[in-house]
């Protein structure tokens, strides 16, 4: 729902245009990539790494460190400005925190984290195949672009949204008496 609103803002601002064609051969790639990345990264970061860190650290510290590592392993784009890369890293850090809080709130079920993460990846690949990004869009607000797609977690809208989602997950933890 959030991403649809974000896309509507981009379309209304005339920053996104629909392509005149859709390459249906990409559908398998979109599905495979979103499922594979969602499953692989969630099992690696939110299950294995988080559980290992919890053996030595408090839950809060384990969440924060695994989120920092999640942010670091995603590549730095040397073709972009420092500000764009910092926003991307902040967005990835907040995404890592959110996905871990989502997992804790649904423990032992990891599927909500996998679905959310896979949904973002799937959106990026789908949007890349059906939209054309205009040159003059406000990237600090919406997120950085490379290879004709905009990453929703790298702009101020995405960062603000992830911040709000994190607050909601933290409140859900406290209500359910799960201590972080």
Structure in words:
The chain is mainly alpha-helical and 180 residues long. The protein has one domain (26-174). It has helices at 2-12, 26-54, 59-73, 82-105, 111-130, 139-142, 156-175, and strands spanning 16-18, 131-133. Strands 1-2 form a two-stranded antiparallel ribbon. α2 (26-54) runs antiparallel to α3 (59-73), α2 (26-54) packs antiparallel against α5 and α4 (82-105) packs parallel to α7. The model has no long low-confidence stretch (mean pLDDT 90).
Task: Describe the structure concisely.
By secondary structure, this protein is mostly helical. The chain has helices at 2-12, 26-54, 59-73, 82-105, 111-130, 139-142, 156-175, and strands at 16-18, 131-133. It has 7 helices and 2 strands; from the N terminus they run H-E-H-H-H-H-E-H-H.
């Amino acid at each position: 729902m959030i991403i649809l609103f974000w896309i509507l803002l981009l379309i209304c601002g005339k920053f996104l245009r629909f392509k005149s064609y859709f390459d249906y051969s990409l559908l398998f790639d979109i599905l495979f990539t979103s499922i594979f990345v969602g499953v692989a990264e969630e099992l690696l970061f939110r299950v294995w790494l988080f559980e290992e860190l919890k053996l030595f650290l408090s839950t809060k510290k384990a969440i924060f460190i695994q989120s920092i590592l999640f942010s670091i392993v995603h590549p730095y784009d040397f073709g972009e400005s420092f500000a764009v890369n910092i926003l991307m890293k902040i967005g990835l850090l907040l995404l890592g925190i959110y996905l871990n809080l989502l997992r804790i709130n649904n423990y032992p079920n990891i599927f909500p984290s996998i679905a959310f993460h896979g949904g973002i990846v799937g959106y990026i690949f789908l949007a890349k195949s059906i939209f054309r990004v205009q040159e003059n869009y406000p990237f600090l607000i919406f997120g950085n672009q490379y290879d004709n797609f905009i990453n929703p977690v790298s702009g101020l809208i995405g960062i603000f949204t992830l911040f709000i989602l994190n607050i909601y997950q933290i409140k859900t933890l406290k209500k359910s008496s799960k201590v972080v």
